[in-house]
Amino acid sequence: MNKILLIIQREFLNRVQKKSFLIATILLPLIFPAIMAVLVFVAVEQKKNATKEVVYYVDESGFFVPDTTQFFFRKFEGDVNTAKIAFQYDDSYGLLYIPAFKLSDPKGIALYTKVNPGPNEVGELERILENRIKELKMQRLNIDQKLLDSLRTNVSILNVNLSEGGQEKNSDSRVLFGVGMTCGILMYMFIFIYGAQIMQGIIEEKTSKVVEVIVSSVKPFQLMMGKIIGLASVGLLQFLIWIVLITTLTSIVLGFFGLEMPQQQMMNEMGQQNPAMQNEGAMEFLKMMGQIPFGYVIFNFLFYFLGGYLLYGALFAAVGSAVDSPAEAQQFMFPITIPMLIAYFGLFTFILEDPHGSISIWLSIIPFTAPIAMMGRIAFGVPDWQLALSMISLIAGFILTTWVAGRIYRVGILMHGTKINYKVMAKWFMMKG
Amino acid sequence: MEALTTSNVTKRYTNHLALDQVSISIPQQTIFGLLGPNGAGKTTLIRIINQIINADSGDIFIFGEPLQEKHIGTIGYLPEERGLYKKLKVGEQLIYLAQLKGLSKKVATEKCKAWIRKFEITEWWNKKVEDLSKGMAQKVQFISTVMHEPKLIILDEPFSGFDPVNAQLITQEILELKAKGCTIIFSTHRMETVEDLCDHIALLDKSKKILEGSKKQVKETYRSNTYWVEHKGSFDLPKTKYELLEQQNLEDSFFKSAVRVIDDTSPNQLIRDLTLVTEVHSFFEKIPTMSEIFISLVKGGKNE
């Protein structure tokens, strides 16, 4: 046992003393908010500086009333053919041609542009025309705007979670979606990054041939576990630093951009609606963020990271022990990657769409997909029994993979220059001590 | 009490038998040569002694006790496939390896420093292994094998890759360790090493032990009753008693001949017979080298 501690300590110090650890630990939490901040900044600036495009129109119907929220409309006096020629020599965005048409059957309306228009522009023009035609139709039916306004009712559903204790919690599924997605993707990345490091470390020991010196002092299983746990403790330390750094930084970033960002979004979405609503929306968003139990999410993230890392780390260790070079390891990565990918795609196709569906539940209980799947679900609220079952199955899962990996590892590390395939590995697994 | 005895140690891998009922016994304070061609089972036996793998059956005793985990610190092992952590500094590395052998950090540090001083490489203490030359790394590797003062030292092909200067240095250290009471197992197929250093040998071939004993004993067993004679003028000997194996012309009328005695005629009788037919300048027994014994036994086995 003492020797495992020595190996853990050695492994931990080796990694932590490296410059790359320091750089990754400090830069990563800076990079993410920095990228976010830059993106938000660019988006905001673009919206601010966006100039409205000029659209000429030829109206033969006499119905058209320009709506200038997104375009500058200029009427072209003359027929459409002259307009087309004039348009060639003009730097305006488009030429909208509205022929005379029946209200019941608007046909032949065309937009001429020099470049292919984006769906937003076409959609906006269609919206303007549709609204205008609707208005004309209403006039014909003698419905006035007042009557129509009185018919329109605004319903906004307040989503309230009633927990077992009877406490009410407001939630916003979009925010939960975001949290679930972020956690799931991070989990996928971390398991891969740390798992690959395990493998790399073991290949290094094998190629530098120090491994036989070491296993004459400790049991191969002790060496493997020491390495896995040592790296896990590096991971935990890194997370703790990140959590501290990110909380500090996001509060700064949110203070600077956060309040502006949702506001801008709301403004675009709401269009001409009551400006008082805008601030309310932003406040709502921040309130929702506040509602998410971050402590609970972080605790579970750490648990599933550890569990998932141990489960996959053992498999990565087995692969590392079997091969002589990282290039050779590639082919054996495939079966390890498959369940990870299933979980990753499951995250987007099932879990975030329907976090309480049966596939989502199964994905979050099967140990191979649980870390990613459960992180996708966690913010939506997971029943305790499911969480408990998932955790137990994850623990059982990593005990199983560690056992399997240990049996392959003890033989693999002593083999040099053997041609490896799955049959050979199975043989090693079956081999007696 | 023997330093190490194995009795009927057997190890089977899926497709072949690596060790078949191997029993050897290694007296204390000797240098024991474990010989055999590639694939004979030497490394398997050594790994079993180091408890890296387990035997399927058979017993191993080390200094009279059944081999168990606590003996890890009793053994110093230099594997054939050896290396060090490239990114670790020499000092850190040695201390770590010594700690894994069960030494406390304090004792490990003291011992490492003592060895570093002895090899006059103190300036390497803070160098990374990857910055050392191959010869330097080998010295460090040797220190890592012996610094925890093991009573049994197992060296698997110790001189492979060593330059002659380092090989000489290591040889001296080995002899010094033996003088201090250590028992050393040499696994090798470099016969000149065996000839120079080993007191006892065991020969493994095709998973079986085919020969064991002190070097003297073995040579005694495999002496071929052949004598080298340097003489002036060629000769003829009675064919019933002697066989002339070869005769080389050295210069002018000087010759060197190998003569085998067929029955139990004594060397004195041979000299007497020789003086009658030629002028004898020198006379000595043709003692088989370890290499010759090795080759004849291993080849003989193949011809069976």
- CATH class placement of the largest domain in chain B: Alpha Beta
Order of helices and strands of chain A: HHEEHEEHHEEHHHHHHHHHHH
Mean pLDDT of chain A: 81
> Assembly state here?
heterodimer
Shape of chain B: elongated
Individual helix count of chain A? 16
The amount of beta strand of chain A, in percent, is 5-15%
Number of strands of chain A: 6
Shape of chain A: elongated
SS field, number of helical segments of chain B: 9
Number of domain modules of chain B: 2
Give a description of the structure.
The complex is a heterodimer of chains A (433) and B (304). Chain A folds into two domains: 51-151, 3-Layer(aba) Sandwich (D-Maltodextrin-Binding Protein, domain 2), CATH 3.40.190; 174-430, no CATH class. In chain A, 69% of the residues lie in helices and 6% in strands. Chain A has helices at residues 2-16, 19-49, 80-88, 119-140, 145-151, 173-207, 211-215, 220-258, 260-270, 276-291, 294-322, 326-351, 358-363, 370-378, 384-412, 422-430, and strands at residues 53-59, 71-75, 94-98, 110-113, 160-162, 168-170. Chain A has a four-stranded mixed β-sheet, with helices on one face. In chain A, strands 5-6 form a two-stranded antiparallel ribbon. The longest helix of chain A has 39 residues, at 220-258. The two termini of chain A are 20 Å apart. Residues 260-278 of chain A have low confidence and may be disordered. Chain B is of the alpha/beta class. Chain B folds into two domains: 2-220, Rossmann fold; 224-286, no CATH class. Helices cover 33% and strands 31% of the residues of chain B. A six-stranded mixed β-sheet of chain B has the order 6-7-8-3-9-10, sandwiched between helices. A four-stranded antiparallel β-sheet of chain B has the order 2-1-4-5, with helices on one face. A four-stranded antiparallel β-sheet of chain B has the order 12-13-11-14, covered by helices on one side. In chain B, α2 packs across α3. The longest helix of chain B has 16 residues, at 164-179. Chain B is elongated, with a radius of gyration of 24 Å. The two termini of chain B are 37 Å apart. The relative contact order of chain B is 0.14. The model of chain B has no long low-confidence stretch (mean pLDDT 87). Chains A and B meet through α1 and α7 of A and α2 of B.
